[in-house]
Design a protein that fits this description.
Elements: H1 12-29, E1 43-48, H2 54-65, E2 69-74, H3 86-95, E3 100-105, H4 110-117, E4 123-129, H5 135-153, E5 166-170, H6 177-188, E6 192-196, E7 212-214, H7 217-221, E8 227-230, H8 246-253, H9 257-265, E9 275-277, H10 290-293, H11 300-319
Parallel strand pairs: 1-2, 1-3, 3-4, 5-6, 5-8, 6-7, 8-9
Helix pairs in contact: 1-5, 1-11, 2-11, 5-6, 5-11
The protein binds phosphoric acid mono(formamide)ester.
Length: 328
């Protein structure tokens, strides 16, 4: 893998290769091995033009657990604020030794542009580009689902895809890079995806996505999903015009205490009890109630922990792309 820009670039074999490699990395995160020397002498730069807690810190932890040197670059407080271009910024970082650039950018398509620009030789990982894609989030979500599927079936997770699982993705699809990456990857891995959202928060062209779309969350929940992925309402991208209102949103599309109780009493298509997923950060009281946010069925923190293993796998595969098949 030269870069990771989009889940559309991953076929089933590629996606399983990342998940299986992440499974091997999980032993390091489980502290059976504290650190691997796999990326000793390599430098990973976290280049963040937008805020982040989980993605930036877990990429940092992932790179360090593989013994890479890590440089954290935040656009705030850098020469970007003096008008320095992306080209000059990344060339400066490569001159300092960057072998891989993990970039979060407010502009949709920025990671692709950087990878195709020829400005640098370093591998590029898309850590979220505008409202477009967040491929490592989708991979860690798929990894989390697969761990639960394997446990339910009493089989090893390695090699397993998500065939048979039904996932409902709920809420602000319009502004969500997580939704697009997830729909594509879940479909590639054989899961069935239902998107439930208000019409005002669906993107143009969603008919072409490999999923069913409904405006009625309660109908989607009645279909026996294995996981309900609640998305953050991205008020900061709405330019002050949040429609429907917060109250109406919660009543119709929030995981309220009542909906959560019904979900807990139901069975999934393959899992005994459905999972609640959230990429974080959560808007408690808006898209998710406290009971669901704090429930043991909520995998939000498990997703964060799995994110380190998945990002170790991605960095390992990208920085060893000339030696595909290299064991971690
Ligand atoms: N899920 C996610 O991308 O979270 P952060 O914005 O905290 O990185």
């Amino acid at each position: 893998m030269r870069h990771l820009l989009s889940t559309l670039d991953l076929d089933r074999i590629d996606a399983l290769s990342v998940l299986d490699t992440a499974g091997q990395m999980a032993a390091v995160n489980g502290r059976e091995v504290k650190k691997l020397p796999a990326l000793r002498g390599r430098t990973v730069v976290n280049l963040f033009f937008e805020d982040s807690t989980r993605t930036r810190i877990s990429f940092e932890a992932a790179a360090k657990r593989l013994s890479a040197d890590v440089i954290n670059f935040s656009a705030k407080g850098s020469s970007v604020s003096k008008g320095e271009s992306l080209k000059d910024t990344v060339q400066t970082l490569e001159a300092i030794g960057a072998d891989a650039i993990v970039m979060r950018h407010w502009s949709s398509g920025a990671a692709q542009q950087l990878a195709e620009s020829g400005w640098i030789k370093a591998g590029v990982v898309n850590a979220g580009d505008g409202t477009h894609e967040h491929p490592t989030q989708a991979l860690l979500d798929a990894y989390t689902l697969r761990e639960h599927l394997a446990k339910e079936r009493g089989v090893p997770a390695a090699g397993l895809d998500l065939t048979g699982m039904r996932v409902v993705i709920v809420g602000d699809i319009l502004h969500s890079r997580v939704a697009r990456s997830n729909v594509w990857l879940l479909d590639t891995l054989g899961a069935e995806v239902i998107v439930a959202a208000p019409p005002t928060l669906l993107p143009v062209g969603i008919e072409a996505w490999p999923c069913r779309v409904t405006y009625a969350l309660d109908e989607a929940l009645a279909e026996g999903p294995d996981a309900v992925m609640m998305l953050r309402v991205q008020v900061e991208r709405m330019g002050g015009a949040f429609f429907p209102s917060a109250g109406e949103y919660t009543r119709s599309w929030g995981l309220t205490a009542d909906r959560f109780a019904r979900l807990n009493a139901a069975s999934g298509r393959v899992l005994g009890t459905p999972l609640v997923m959230h990429p974080g950060p959560m808007n408690r009281g808006l898209e998710i109630c406290d009971a669901a946010a704090d429930s043991p069925r909520n995998t939000a923190l498990e997703q964060v922990a799995n994110g380190v293993s998945v990002r170790m796998a991605v960095l390992h595969l990208i920085l060893n792309h000339d030696a595909e098949g290299t064991q971690p």
